[in-house]
Amino acid sequence: MVLQHTPVCAFGTPAPDFRLPGVDGRDWTRADCAGPRGLLVMFICNHCPYVKAIRPRLVEDVRVLQALGIGCVAISANDPADYPEDGFAPMAEVARRCGFTFPYLFDASQEVARAYGAVCTPDFFGYNAAFELQYRGRLDASGREPAAADARRELVEAMRQVADSGHGPAEQVPSMGCSIKWRAA
Predict the structure, then answer these.
(1) Is 115 contained in some domain?
(2) Which positions fall inside the Thioredoxin domain (predicted)?
(3) How many domains does the chain have?
(4) H helices of the chain, where?
(5) pLDDT tens-digit readout, 67-111
């Protein structure tokens, strides 16, 4: 696995639209996933140790954001031919076992991940109600191991600011994780 860091937030970049299948059996669009005060698009997967380290806090933090009117969605774009743990059936099992309260979608073509410019798992894209990018940072100080219980909740703080003002913080710490597992050309 190759460690990647997300690029600096390109404020105002529009959120690409999508239609992807969810592990709940329905197709989801960007509009379906959005909340009245914004949208958080998370590129995650099942096998990545960086994602595994944050899953419990991610589920907790998403509940906070949903209560603030931020819609949340997770997308897996990894190639399941090389990473079977990231296939659709295992995704459904992880969503059930971890208590995901947000859609978990599969980007089999990887076109949505490319449209967003996703580079790693986890990779967070926080948008305001006008679908303008305002956050491209990390969840918290977690790495391959979970951060301390009292670690600053950077994603929650940033998205609370987006919900309240429509603008994200000027200072953002990049997320880091495993590279997206792209299919061979």
Answers:
(1) yes
(2) 9-161
(3) 1
(4) 30-33, 49-67, 88-98, 111-116, 154-165
(5) 999 999 999 999 999 999 999 999 999 999 999 999 999 999 999
